[in-house]
Amino acid sequence: MSEVASYDVIVIGAGPAGYPCAIRAAQNGLKVACIDEWKNYDGSHTFGGTCLNAGCIPSKALLESSELYHRAHAEFAAHGIKVGGLEFDVATMQKRKAKIVKASTQGIAGLFKSAGVTGLQGHGKLLPGNRVEFTALDGTKQEFAARHVVLASGSVPMELKSVPFDGKNVVDSWGALEFDAVPKRLGVIGAGVIGLELGSVWRRLGAEVVVLEAMEQFLWMADQQVAKEALKHFKKQGLDVRLGAKVSGAKQGKDGVKLEYADASGTQTVTVDKVVVAIGRRPFTGGLLGEGTGVELDERGFIQVDHECRTAAPNVWAVGDVVRGPMLAHKGKEEGVMVGDLIAGLRSEVNYRAIPSVIYTAPEIAWVGLTEDEVKKTGREYKVGSFPFMASGRARAMEAPAGFAKVIAAKDDDEILGVHIIGPMAGELIAEAVLALEYSASTEDLQRTIHAHPTLSEAVHEAALHADRRAIDVPNR
Ligand code: FAD
Ligand code: NAD
Q1: SS (H, E, C) 56-72
Q2: Which of 36, 53, 76, 402 is the most buried (most CB within 10 A)?
Q3: pLDDT at residue 127 is higher than 70
Q4: Helix (H) or strand (E) holding 20
Q5: What is the rounded average pLDDT of the residues 428-433?
Q6: How far is the CA of 194 from the centre of ligand 1 (A)?
Q7: Do 451 and 315 sit in the same domain of this protein?
Q8: For residue 330, how far is its CA from the centre of ligand 2 (angstroms)?
Q9: Ligand nearest to the backbone CA of 357
């Protein structure tokens, strides 16, 4: 093993937390390398981590294709468009998805090149004294020195001991993105973000989908008014969501996979052809830390960091899914960018109170800030304004009147505390609310902001007006 180079910064992991960190550090004039070991099913190695290869991007590609099919099937007639002989082809959908993923991951390699980041494919291991052991894909080892090391090793799916993955009939989210045919009966364990998004994809294409959720409460992390509305629509779409269902085992037989679970009425079974286990993800630090680095993990395996993503070891930082906070690509990206700036001696911070969440179902769900229950717990007096998409001219024209926008604000100084949207393009609409929270805006700020007509964004405007019972397009009840 020989030392061939030293860097200002070595980033381990080129997912949405690691690669932006490497690029920002390089933009700041630092000499940067980014090491990544991601391996695809076909044996190829690409940058981009979970998000680009097996998460955000491929799931959105399939959500888009399946939604288009569903709309052609179920909604075009309302527009007076007659579609005869409508069919879909999973192989073409999968090819389109693969093309989008390839363009995205190759894009990272291109960005590294233009920013001057050395992208290295292989395994990185932190050693004491800010040294990094790099094992290339061909097994050769080198040792690098770095002034700063950033750990961005991401997360992996959690396993359910009673329903172990077999890579064929019991799969994780990546496996469920790769099905080459629509399963007749699909079991989804976990009604979280992945369960609902991937359950929707395969339901829209005709699978019978049963979703088993351990909690009694649906979408416990979302505003419960939104959760209630969402459950109503998902059930109407045919997602068979069973709450309070504690899965205890799976038996594979000739008829498929028989899942056993317990709910309030006792032991139940359901037989399906494929099972997706989507019960959350855990931080991944396998082979990342050598002896005596000083980096500390918490009891759940997350790398411990302070609010600026510094670990317990000097000049070692950690960002993204491997540290506390929501496991979201944009949260990791902002942490990566912050660290890329802090290392260069610039000021930076992440506003953890203004991280948006989006669930890309139909209707889409998006929120930022506190839910109504969370506001209640603070004891602060608050007001709520809401606006149904049914009253939006644009939503009606789009044949997408489901859902509403909801703004929660403090009674004393009118500060916006949370915005929750369920409805068309909610994930796009939430950006305005994120900006509002970033600027500590009031509902009056939103009320006085001119929104183009007819747009979906008027729903957020009207919800802000409704908080003071000054809405124009809905009765002020
Ligand atoms: P990762 O993306 O996991 O990247 C870590 C990288 O580090 C990987 O390439 C890994 O191989 C590499 N690595 C690990 N250890 C080493 C090592 N020792 N040496 C070298 N390389 C190493 N989030 C959203 O915000 N929006 C979405 O729509 C969304 N959709 C998702 C859909 C699915 C199906 C899934 C599974 C996740 C989704 N997420 C979404 C979550 C998102 O993918 C993660 O939050 C994000 O990828 C985390 O980024 P990261 O850089 O921290 O880690
Ligand atoms: P999640 O935490 O969103 O949901 C997991 C669900 O599984 C929860 O509702 C939980 O109560 C349930 N559960 C846990 N154990 C169970 C059991 N034994 N039986 C039945 N249900 C059980 O996790 P996920 O859906 O796996 O997603 C993982 C991460 O990826 C999340 O943190 C999410 O933020 C991220 N992600 C984000 C997006 C997005 O931003 N649109 C999309 C996909 C994934």
Answers
A1: HHHHHHHHHHHHHHHHH
A2: 36
A3: yes
A4: helix 18-27
A5: 98
A6: 14
A7: no
A8: 17
A9: 2
* Domain match, 233 and 381 both: no
Supply the pLDDT for residue 371. Answer: 98
Contact between 359 and 444 under an 8 Å Cβ cutoff? The reply is: no
Distance 412 CA to ligand 2 centre (A): 36
Q: What number is the average pLDDT over the span 135-139?
A: 97
Number of residues that make up the chain: 477
pLDDT > 60? residue 8 = yes
The number of distinct structural domains making up the chain is 3
Same domain, 40 and 141: yes
Residue 14 CA: nearest ligand 1 atom is: 6
CA 407/CA 420 separation, integer angstroms: 7
C-beta neighbour count of 70 within 10 angstroms: 19
Structure tokens at 457: 């964004």
How confident is the model over 312-335, as pLDDT tens digits? Answer: 999 999 999 999 999 999 999 999
DSSP β-bridge partners for residue 404: 388, 422
Ligand 2 neighbours by CB, cut-off 6 Å: 160, 189-195, 197, 212-215, 247, 278-281, 326-328, 358-360
Q: Which one, of 292, 294, 291, 259, lies nearest residue 273 by Cα?
A: 259
User: What pLDDT was estimated at residue 5?
Assistant: 85
Residue 476 lies in a domain: no
Which residue owns the Cα nearest ligand 2 atom 19? 214
Among the three residues 350, 377, 397, which one is the final residue of a domain in this structure?
Answer: 350
The answer, yes or no, to whether residue 1 has pLDDT greater than 70, is no
Mean pLDDT over residues 276-288, rounded? 98
Q: Detail the DSSP E strand segments found in 217-280.
A: 239-242, 246-253, 256-263, 266-272, 274-277
| Ramachandran quadrant class, 334 (left: phi over 0; alpha: psi -120 to 50; beta: rest) | alpha
Q: Mean per-residue pLDDT for 357-383?
A: 98
pLDDT value for 2: 56
pLDDT in tens, 443-476: 999 999 999 999 999 999 999 999 999 999 999 9
Mean pLDDT to the nearest integer, 330-344: 98
Do residues 273 and 332 both lie within one domain?
Answer: no
The backbone torsions φ and ψ at residue 95, rounded to the nearest 5 degrees and listed phi first, read -65, -40
From the centroid of its chain, how far is CA 344? 29
Residue by residue, DSSP assigns 102-124 as: HHHHHHHHHHHHHHT-EEEEEEE
Query: Could you tell me which of 242, 240, 235, 196 has the C-alpha nearest to residue 216?
Result: 242
